[in-house]
Amino acid sequence: MFATQNWYCAARSDDVLNKPIAKKIVNTEMVLFRDSEGFVKSLAAMCAHRGGNLGSGRCIDGNLECPWHGWRYDGEGNCTHVPSLGPDGKIPGAAKVQAYPVHEAQGFIYVWPNSEAIPDWKPAHHRFLDAKYHVKGACRLQKGNFINTVEGSIDDSHVHIAHRKTIGASTAVALAPIQNVTVDSDNRGVEGFMKWDTAAKRKASRVTQWMNKHLLGVSEDPATHDKSFRAEMTGLVIHRYRKQDEHDFVVYGITTPVDECHNLFFAGFIDTNPSRSLIGNLIYWLGFRSIGPKVFDEDEGVITDAIADRFPGGHPRPISVNADTMGLAFRRMYASHVFAEGGEPAWPAARPN
Ligand code: FES
Ligand SMILES: [Fe+2]
Fold this sequence. Notes:
By secondary structure, the chain is of the alpha+beta class. It folds into 2 domains: 8-111, Rieske Iron-sulfur Protein (3-layer Sandwich), CATH 2.102.10.10; 127-340, Naphthalene 1,2-dioxygenase Alpha Subunit, Chain A, domain 1 (Alpha-Beta Complex), CATH 3.90.380. It has 5 helices and 19 strands. The chain has helices at 146-153, 159-162, 206-216, 278-306, 325-340, and strands spanning 8-12, 21-25, 28-34, 40-44, 58-60, 63-65, 72-73, 79-81, 99-100, 102-105, 108-111, 133-136, 140-143, 178-183, 189-194, 227-232, 236-242, 248-259, 262-271. The radius of gyration is 22 Å and the shape is globular. It starts with 7 loop residues before the first strand and ends in a 13-residue tail after the last helix. The relative contact order is 0.15. The structure holds FE2/S2 (inorganic) cluster (FES) and fe (ii) ion (FE2).
């Protein structure tokens, strides 16, 4: 069901320091740790000896030690030490665990869960991720199927309904159409644009108006600010607003499938204006810390209440309207990679409108 020749975000760089952490990515149990040079390594979490859980082991001199009998593994998964054999003992040749490719960039750690195919591309570099004011949320385990979760993170049409208690508008009105949808030449990213016609303004909630005025720096009705959308194979979704000061305000989410009914979800926002004050940044941070979890709870609620358990792939016969354009573009792109690997996505690729 999932594309496996793909990079998935497993953790933030700060999450992997001197202790190993366990992660399940596309149904594969892994453990991440840093070797003696500080490079992140990813190994299958099951020890070659008796299946001890390496995820609860510890790091010794850049090797990973199993918590059961203390066998140690290097970053390539080779067993380097078996305590019971003593210093001159011969380590069995088969004592090895699977290693997975890792790519660490711009504060995130990506893993490639397919041990057969060698990665031939890297996640795109985004300049906004290097901006000084980057407010990052913690990695969250979110219940819901993958496709609904990614689509939910790029879908503005649920905001004033599902999030009416937090960031949504008090009244539901029409959204501007999504236009100019393009697919990257390597078929790993899709982009679209929303341009408001001034006659079609919608009323934002008081919270949204306050946040947009202070966070986005726009003074017209901010709910109807023009924006661009982008979704990538890594599960990264980007909402980019051009502010009046010519800088961007970017809200992003990264969804990584854990299994058919769970995802890791990373979110954050960034103001690319480097001269924002410390106070301004503190407001950002406090706003995100206090409202963010409530917003994600609301998302999780609607996605799981609906269909996550009954239909892991989401609705079996979805009907779409213009507001679903970006979600559909992602769904088609991701599905094409699953098909290319000889798999079958659990969700229908998409029906025409
Ligand atoms: S199970 Fe890991 S060392 Fe024995
Ligand atoms: Fe949402």
